[in-house]
Structure formats: C-alpha cells, structure tokens
UniProtKB/TrEMBL annotation:
SUPFAM superfamilies per UniProt: Winged helix' DNA-binding domain
Entry protein name: Transcription regulator TrmB N-terminal domain-containing protein
Source organism: Candidatus Falkowbacteria bacterium CG1_02_37_44
Domain annotation Transcription regulator TrmB N-terminal: ranges: 5-72
Record InterPro entries: TrmB-like, Tscrpt_reg_TrmB_N, WH-like_DNA-bd_sf, WH_DNA-bd_sf
Domain of life according to the entry: Bacteria
Length: 241
C-alpha cells in the first residue's frame, strides 16, 4: 500500500498518519502520535492537510477531535483528476513544442508528391491563398501526374487563389495550361533555369526539387510560412503580368 500511496503523491509523513488511522479506525490525535512516532506538530499539520484534501473526516466528541478515513473512492477520483490535469498539461506542452520546432517531412517520387498535396488539400480552407515562387511549369505538371486535374478542380470549387511568380521565358509554357480562373501569374525578367520552386500556404511551405527522383520537402510552421510570404509579397510587387 505504501508504494501505491507514494504514486498518488502522498509524502512519507502523510503515509504514516494515513496508515495509522486505517489501522486504528476512528481515532483522536493521541493514539495516532503514539503509533506513528512522529512529533505532535507534524501529526497536527498532516491531519490538517489530509482533511483539506478530503481524505479524512473529523468530528468532535466530548470536546476532543476524532479522525477517520473517508470513503476510499475519493482516491480514485483524485487519481482521475490528476490524470486529466496531466493530459491537459501534456497537450499544452506538445502545442508549445510544435510552435517552436517546425515539422519537416520529405516525400519522394510521384506517389509521395501526390500524398503531400492530398494532405494539403485536407488542410486548406475555402478562399485561402497558395503562393508559388519560381514556377516549375511543365516539370510541376509532370510531377503532379493524374492528380493535376483533381488539384485544379479543387482550387476552383473552393475559390482558393493560386498566385504564381514565374520567369518571363516560361510565359508561353505556363499560358498553355492557364485555364484556371483561380490562378494569377506574374513574371520576372531573369532568365534562370528551374530546378526547384516553393509553394507557400498558411501553415507551412513546400520546397519542390525536380531531381531524379523528384523530391518534395514540407516544412510545417506558421512562422516560417509568414517569412516566406513576406518575401513573396516583395517579389510580387516587382513582377509584371
């Protein structure tokens, strides 16, 4: 029983007093002090604590206080309260850690690429905006595979705007697929080749690498997404239709 009481948060003195009363039954302070061998002040303090924790009941007979163990069901209720408090605390700590440490997930190949977009599709809400910096063009469409049409229809259905910044040499290539009314594209004059691009959304980013196999790196972090969004907004102002 001692180990169980310790697990419930009882101190050694509380265990001694509680066990003594359990053996004695209803008792005044004198027999409890004698049985525990503890100083009377310690016993008085412990009895007061156990009464406040509703583990003991007290009554007065002939001017003398008597103590007895309350229904042991209270121990179960106390344990349940501790469990609930622990779960809430664990959830709070977990959320705090999440907010500080970004989650990084790496997807490989077309199957992985599609999985990333399916998960994003479940998180995006109607009328949100997805921003693309450094458009992959035909490489991106090839990576999307059969899921390309599903993604396009999803953007239209939920009125999710896709703002893209590409390079001027890509204009003809992009406009060949530019049938989505929810997509706006602006161009920069630099003649760079595309080996990767970045998708920015509310709670994270995709870094998309057109290697063999293709790789998509997802970083889930509102703080990081905010930083990339600020950079995108500056580039958007410098770009032209």
């Amino acid at each position: 029983m001692i180990n169980e009481l310790k697990k419930l948060g009882f101190t050694n003195n509380e265990i001694n007093v509680y066990s003594a009363i359990l053996d004695l039954g209803q008792s005044s302070t004198g027999p409890i002090i004698k049985k525990t061998g503890l100083h009377r002040n310690i016993v008085y303090d412990v009895l007061d604590t156990l009464v406040k924790r509703k583990l003991l009941s007290e009554s007065i007979k002939s001017g003398k206080k008597y103590f007895k163990i309350k229904n042991p069901q209270i121990l179960i209720l106390k344990a349940q309260e501790q469990l609930e408090a622990s779960n809430k605390l664990a959830g709070y700590i977990k959320n705090k850690l999440k907010s500080k440490a970004p989650e990084v997930i790496i997807y490989e190949g077309k199957e992985g690429w599609e999985t990333a977009y399916r998960l994003l599709k479940n998180r995006l809400k109607a009328k949100e905006t997805v921003c693309t910096l450094g458009v992959g063009g035909d490489k991106w469409i090839s990576a999307m595979g059969d899921f390309f049409i599903t993604w396009e229809n999803f953007l239209v259905k939920h009125k999710i705007m896709n703002k893209m910044i590409a390079y001027k040499w890509q204009k003809k290539e992009i406009e060949a697929h530019q049938k989505n009314p929810m997509r706006k594209t602006k161009y920069l004059p630099e003649p760079y080749s595309i080996s990767s691009n970045t998708e920015i959304f509310k709670d994270g980013i995709f870094i998309q690498i057109y290697s063999d196999p293709i790789i998509l790196i997802e970083i889930r972090s509102k703080e990081i997404a905010k930083g990339y969004q600020q950079h995108f907004d500056v580039m958007w102002k410098l770009s032209k239709y």
